[in-house]
Structures are given as structure tokens and as C-alpha cells.
Amino acid sequence: MVGRIRSKAGPDGLAAGPFARRRLLNGDIVFRLVAAAAAGLTIGLIGLMVFDSVQAAWPAFQRFGLDFVTGIRWSPSFTIYGALPFIYGTLLTSAIALLLAVPIAVLIALLVTEFLPTQVGRPVAIVVDLLAAVPSVVWGLWGLLVLVPFMRPIEQGIADGPGRLIPFLGPPTPGPSYFVAGVVVAVMIVPIVAALTREVFATTPRLQREAVLALGGTRWDVIRCVVLPIGRTGLLAAVLLGLGRAIGETIAVTMVIGNAPRIGGSIFSPGFTLASVIANEFNEATEPLHAESLVGLGVVLLVIAIIINGAGVAVRRRFERSAGRGR
Amino acid sequence: MAADYGALLSPTSRGRRFKANLVVALAVVATTFALVPLASVFLFLVTRAAGVLGPDFLLQDPPGDLSAAGGGIRNAITGTLEMTALATFIAAPVGILIAIFDTEVGGRAATGTRFFIDVLVALPSIVVGIFVYSLIVVAQGHFSGFAGSVALAAIMLPVIVVSTEEMLRLIPRPISEGARALGLSRWRTYASVFLPTAVSGIFTGLLLAVSRAIGETAPLLFTALGNNFFSTDMNEPMQGLPLLIYRNALNSAFPAARDRAMGAALVLVLIVLAFNLLGRWLVARRKLSRSTGQ
């Protein structure tokens, strides 16, 4: 056991050498066992929690089968539980959030790494990061009391004007909506995407930049010809990781999405996301199948989040490897 | 970065220069635009919540009825501090040990734990709440501050592991060589050399994890549940600032509930900012001492 977990090199990269066997004293064995126990226990606990939850949701999966995911009706009073309205809501708000946040975040990262001198860029980056320090529930409160009243006439104007002709932009516009939820989530993921993108842009090899400048290129040419093409993979990773955060965002969304368990035909209509329906109904779910179905929504959300984040982490590792090679 | 790129920017065609300036302008506009919500939220809190704040607001408990005026948020402040403190006591040692396991043992086992840490990062906080509910609340038979702490610990753990691992990896090679040369055992090396060297970095990671956990609402909904009364008993349902803000905001049609939510939000933001800025300041100071010192 101990022999198996012993490595050839320490964290410092120093080979253990011929004395290593003697150096692994009793204290070291205990030390390693304690560390291994912490890791093992944590993994075990996560596994147990996932298993517990899947088990708790099992009756709902069993009863509805695939209809649980594709069903368009969620009605506790008729004990019909279909998650599609919430999957739709989650994907729609996340898509709106990404469309708004990614261009802004990329432009912020460009400003900080490419246009501003370091002494000015760093404070700007810190202030942008502060967006992430404001708790979700505070963004929700702000959304509810400031953004919704502000957006209501705008939504109404669009819905009554061009919205009559363009799909997804029509009425009704009560205020809380997929769109407002998307805006709030966008505000919350801008700092995350901007920070990740900043890291990506900062790894651009200097020689390549200078080559473009030497050829008489402008700073925009540097970005167009070097920074963006080289950082493409890293940018994709940043978008995926931002999407992962957007999908799991709960409280702020619950407060501004209007809590309507149906597929709204317009981005200005109220809806529900997977996370917000759980937050809203779980404490009131007295009927067992209702609670089991809500846990089932949690499992669906977990699967979506793990796929997206897993893709993000994988793409990011790939970018880091290629960036490491390039230097 | 001392090179003067400006000298290289010889005149090019007007169209290309115009495009370059356009992108700069766009970037400035986008950044300003992104900061509008930040300014708006602070303005909102300062202008509309500051009037609610006062000694009574901090030192009294809320009335049993959300719509009733008066009272304060004492139970939520103590609850948040208590649950976050316990969460830190759970997550910090475990997180640091996992980071040590990953760096010290390495290999396939570490790849495995890293995968699970990635999963933990990916977990939506509401799902953490459901997990802890089915593991602890169902087993105990009631909601509790303890369950809330465990949920917050799950949020903090990956932050602590990642930052500690980074710090351990940054330990200068001569220091580890010195430890080897002295013939120190591995645990002695960590206890007396590596951890003290990395302590400020690890502490910074802890602060950032705390500032993240303090503001979390979703993991507490089905674990700590919330409590209208003052309680320091970890076995009882416990109130937290985010929970109080959430429940009062949902009833914001009542002016009293709205004011309470806004006042509590200002207090929460101030607490989170204190931890966050302290952490950042420590990072900046360390970077400074590293670049000027030695």
C-alpha cells in the first residue's frame, strides 16, 4: 500500500535517490496515510452524496422515464413532473448571459493586457474582479429592485414595437423574465470570463507580437493576427467555464426570472431554471414524488454542469500544454 | 515590458489606424459598461440601505413577522459568522492535506483527486445543498447550522485545495534542497519548512474561500434553513445573512422587509469586501516583497 503510493520524485522535482527508502520513516508513513485519508474520505463523501441523491431521485426517474427530461408539463397538483421547461430556461438564460458577457469580457481583457500600461491595467482588473465579490443574493436584490423596474418599459417597448414581428421578442412583459435573469447572470460571469481570458492573452509569445509590430502592424493587427489566433483554445475554455457558472447560478436568477413553470415563447416572458425551481419548491415539497423529482432536477443539473465544466477544464489543459510548447 | 512599442508604430494607412483606434474605443466603452452594474449596486446600497443601518439594526433580532417594522439582524450576523467559522475549520485542514497529498504523493492517485476537485468546482451550489440535505439533514431528521456549515465547507474546499497546491508548487527549489540536505523527514519538511514558507499564500486562499462562502445562499436553503430567532446552537436551524436577505427580498412588497433586506445586503457586502480586499492586499504585498526583496 505504502510502496504503491510512494513516488519517485518529490514535489520539488528532486529524485528521491538511493537513500529514499531509508528516509521514509514511520512518521512519514503516518503523514502520508493522513494525507491520503483526507483525500480518500473527501472523494468517498462526494461519491456517497452523488449516490444518495441519485437514489433519492430514482423513483421519479423510474416513474417518468425519459419523459422526465422531455416532458413539458410540471404540475405538482397533478403529480406530473417534466423538466423540459426548466432545461429550456437554464439554457436560454445562460445563452443570453454568454452573448452579453463574452464580448464584453474579451474587450475588458484586451484593454487590460493590450492597451493599458500595467500600472493602469492592474487596478482596472481589480475593479472588474470586484463584480465577482458581490454575493449572488445581493445581485438578486439589485435585479429585483433596480434592474426589473428599469427594464420593464424597455422590454415593453421592444415587445410592442419590433417584437410583434420578430419571434422570441414578443409580449407579455411583466418585468421579471428570462432576459433580465440573463442580464444578471451576465454581470456575474463577466469577471470570471475576463480573468480567464486575461490569463490567456498574457501568455501570447512576445516575439510574435513584436514581429507584427516590426512589419508595421497596428495594435489591432497584433490582436487580429497573433493574440486571438494563438489564444483561440484558451478563449473557448474561458467561455465554457463561464457557461458552467451561468448554468448553476441559483439565487439571483430565482429572484428575477418570474418563477413560471412553462416554456415562455418570448425572452421577455417569465420562466424558471433548473436551479431556481429547486430553490423555490424544495422546502415546500411535502409530497414524496415532488421532492424526488426536484432532486432529479438536481441530478440533471449536475450532469449538465459536469459535462460543460469537464469540457472547459479539458480544453484549458490543452491550451496550457500548447502554450507551454510554444514558449 | 520596457520596450517602447510606440516607436515601432510607424504611420500606416489611415484605415488601419482608424480600426485600431476603434477597437481601443470599443474596449473602453465595454469596460465602462461592465462597471455600470457595480456602480449601480453600490449606489443602490449606499443611498437606500445606509438609512436602515444603526446600532439597533446590528444588535437586535428581527421581529417574528417579516412585514413588521423594527428589529435588526443580529441572529443572521452571528449565524453567518458561526457557520462560516465552522466551515473553515472543516475545510481548511482537509483542503491543505489534500493539496499535500497531491504534491507529495503525485502520480495517478493525485490525478484522481484532482478530477474529484474539478467535479467539486463544477457543482452548482444548489446541488451542494441537495447533497448535504440527503446526507446529513435526512439522517439527523432536522435542519441544522451544522449541515449548513458542511455545505459551505464543500464550497470552500476546492478553492483551498487549488490555492494551497499552487503555493506548494511555488516553493523555491533551494529551500527543498536544503530540507533534503538536512536529512529532514518528509512530514518534518512540510511542518517546519514548506507550510511556514507558503503560509501567507495559503492564508490568502483561505480568505478568498471565506469571502466566497459567506455570500452563498443556495447551499443553506435546505441545510441551515434559516431561523427567525437568535440561536447559537449548531444543532438547531440557523439564520444567515444571505438567507435573511433572500426571504425578506421575496416579500419586498412590505416596506419593512425591503428595508431589512437592503440593510442586511449592505452589511453582507461590507463583510465580504473586507475579507476579499484583505486577501488581495496580502497577495499584492507578497508579490511586492518578492520582487524587491532577496
Tell me the name of the CATH class of the largest domain in chain A.
Mainly Alpha
Order of helices and strands of chain B: HHHHHHHHHHH
Helix/sheet category of chain B: mainly alpha
**CATH class call of chain B:** Mainly Alpha
Name given to the CATH architecture of the largest domain in chain A: Orthogonal Bundle
Alpha carbon gap, first and last residue of chain A: 39 Å
Overall structural class of chain A, as computed from helix and strand content, comes to: mainly alpha
Would you report the number of β strands of chain A? Answer: 2
Beta-strand residue fraction of chain B: under 5%
Any idea what the radius of gyration of chain B is? 24 Å
Distance between the termini of chain B: 21 Å
What is the count of structural domains of chain B? 1
Q: What oligomeric state best describes the polypeptide chains here?
A: heterodimer
Overview of the structural elements:
The complex is a heterodimer of chains A (327) and B (294). Chain A has helices spanning 2-5, 20-23, 26-64, 67-70, 84-115, 118-133, 136-160, 178-202, 206-214, 219-248, 251-256, 274-281, 288-326, and strands at residues 74-75, 80-81. With 327 residues, chain A is mainly α. Chain A has 2 domains: 2-64, no CATH class; 67-326, MetI-like fold (Orthogonal Bundle), CATH 1.10.3720.10. Chain A has a two-stranded antiparallel sheet with strand order 1-2. In chain A, helix 5 runs parallel beside helix 8 and helix 5 runs antiparallel to helix 10 (219-248). Chain A is globular and about 70 Å long. In chain A, 50% of the residues are buried. Chain B has one domain (78-261, 268-292): MetI-like (MetI-like fold). Chain B has helices at 14-49, 55-59, 74-104, 107-122, 125-140, 145-169, 173-181, 186-214, 218-221, 241-250, 255-292. Mean pLDDT of chain B is 88; it is low at 1-8. Chains A and B meet through helix 3, helix 5, helix 6, helix 7 and helix 8 of A and helix 1, helix 3, helix 4, helix 5 and helix 6 of B.
